[in-house]
Amino acid sequence: MSALPLAQRRRALVAKAELQRMVLQQAAADLRQNLTFAENALAVVAKLKSKPVLAALITAGVVVLVTSPRRALKWISYAATAYSLIRRVSPKRGSDA
Questions:
Q1: 25 and 39 both lie in a single domain
Q2: What total of structural domains would you count in the chain?
Q3: Which of 15, 22, 55, 85 is a Cys-bridge partner for 48, taking CB atoms 3.0 to 4.6 Å apart?
């Protein structure tokens, strides 16, 4: 058995191993990204579990937005106007007046 085919075979195996490492690194990066997304989603769910009123409001808002977007935008504009008016009329916090 000559040394030349053995050296060629070794180079081919090293190149194949390098390619496999790169593919594995990409798969691990994709998996890490998906797990981060899942972890963040679970954190949001946990926070919403601790605040059921907020969860109900968000759910109602999504339902209204999906079923009737025009009506939802109308109510959003009403809410923004009311919020702006309340901020202008209410006294500033921490003021001595």
A1: yes
A2: 2
A3: 55
